[in-house]
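Sample A.
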Amino acid sequence: MNWCVAAHDFSHFLLHAAVLVKNNKAILCPASPGSGKSTLSAFLGLSGWFVYSDEMAIIDIDSQNVKPMFRPVCLKNDSIELMKNWHPSAIITPVCRDTQKGDVAHVKVLSWQQYQQLTPVPITALVFPKFKTGSELKLYKLDQLDAFSQLSRNAFNYNVLGKTAFTLSADIVSRAGIYQAEYSDLTQLATFFDELVQA
C-alpha cells in the first residue's frame, strides 16, 4: 500500500514519518526503518494520542496540514510482545512469522468512528527519533539546515515535486520545533511529546 501511494500520489508531499496528534497539533517523526517509529506510534496511540500514520505523512501542499490515514500500526519482532505487556487489552493480530521483515503483527489504535472525526492538522514539531537500548532520553535541538536535509531525504516524492517540495520543506522547518531524540524508555519520550503539544 505504501508503494501504491508513494508511486502515484503527486498531489501531496509524502514523507517517511510517523504522525502523532494531540490537541490538534501534529508531531512528525521522520526516520529510517528500525528507528522505533511504529513501536512509539502504537504506544502513544494506546495512550491517548491519535496516530495519523506510523510510517507515512501525507501533507497537503496548499494548507501544509497533515492528513490522517486509517491503518493499523505494524509491529515487528520484539515490539509485539512488548506491546502485549504494556497494553494487555490491545487488539493485535496473530503474528506472521519469518516475513521479509521478521515477525510481524498489526495493532488497532483507531476505530472507524474515531477516524471519521479526524481532520487535517498543522505540524507543530519535528522529532527525529533514534532508539538505543539502555539509553536515557537525550534531546538535541537541530538547526533548520540539518532538519531540512533530513526531511528531504525522508520524502518519497521530493524529486517529483521539485520546487514545491523544496518550498514546503523550508516552510515546515522554519515554523516547527526541531529535535533529535535518543531514547529507550517510551514513557520518557511520551512526556516530552506531551510538553510539545501543550506549548
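Sample B, a different protein:
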Amino acid sequence: MEHEAIGENRTRPTLTLLLTARRCPVECVFCDLWKHNHPGATPVGSIPHQIRGATASLTSPVGTWAIKLYNGGNFTDPLSIPPADWPEIAELCKPFERVIVENHATMCGERLLRFRDLLSPQLEVAVGLETSNPDVLARQQKQMTLDDFAGAAEFLQRNEIALRCFVMLQLPHANPKKCVDDAVQAVIHAAQAGAQFVAIIPTRSDTPAMQKLIATGEFVSPTLMQLETALHDSLSQIRTDDSGCVVTADTWDIEMVRHCPTCQDARIKNIQAMNSRQQSLPVSRCDRCGS
C-alpha cells in the first residue's frame, strides 16, 4: 500500500497490484514489463484469484482507497484480462473508492464502458503517452500516434472516466540533451488533454534491446538530476496553468537511476517531497558532480 498524491499535501491510500497476465502484444522498445508476464492467454479465474489473495489480509476499511489493477499491458485485451472475469473483479473492487487500470490508447473504446458499468467505484484509466514528440513516438514501436492519444483522452472525458498518463524521461532515439524539456512538454500535453495525474518515469535499460541501443549510442540513461529537474519544471508549469493536474516522478527502483553518489540521497528526498507536496522545490546543488 502506498499514499499517492492527489493534490497539494493530500494523498490517497492506494493498493497497487502487479497482476500476472498475458504479455502485452504491443512491444514498445523501452518496455520491460513483459518480463513479469507470460506469452499465453490468461486463464479464466486467475485474475480474481490474484486480487482475492492480495486483498484478503487487509484489515483497514478501504472506502477511501484506490486500487490499481496493473497487468503490464491492457485491461481490455481479452487475452490478458478475460471479460468473463469482469463481474467478479468488479465485485472484489466494490469496497474501494477508485479502480485504476492501464490501457493502450487504441484500446480505449466500448469494452471499457462495459467494465465501467459493472463498477461501483470511479474508474480511472492509465494511458502511456510517453512523449509529445511525434517523430520520437513513431520510433518506439508503440503502434500509437498523438491523434490516437487525443481520441482516447476525448473518449474517456466524454464518458466521465478519469485519465492518468505515463511520460518517459529520455526515450530511445531522442536527444539526451533535451530529455528534460521533452518530458515537461509531454506533461503539459497530457494535462491539456484532461489528465488528472501524470507520472514521469525514467526509462530503464535492463533489457537486451535497450543494452544494444546503449552500445550504438541511440540511448543514454537519464540521470537522477534530470528526473528531479523534470519534476520541478513540470510542477512549476502546471501550477502556473492551474490545471489541477497532479504530477509525480516515479520512484520505483529510484536508487537504480544513474546518479552521483554524493547528491543521490538529497535528490531522492527532494523528489519525494515534491511528489507529496505538489510544489516545485529548488533543485539540489552538488559541488562534486557540478549539477
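Observation for Sample B: Residues 24 and 73 are 4 Å apart (CA to CA).
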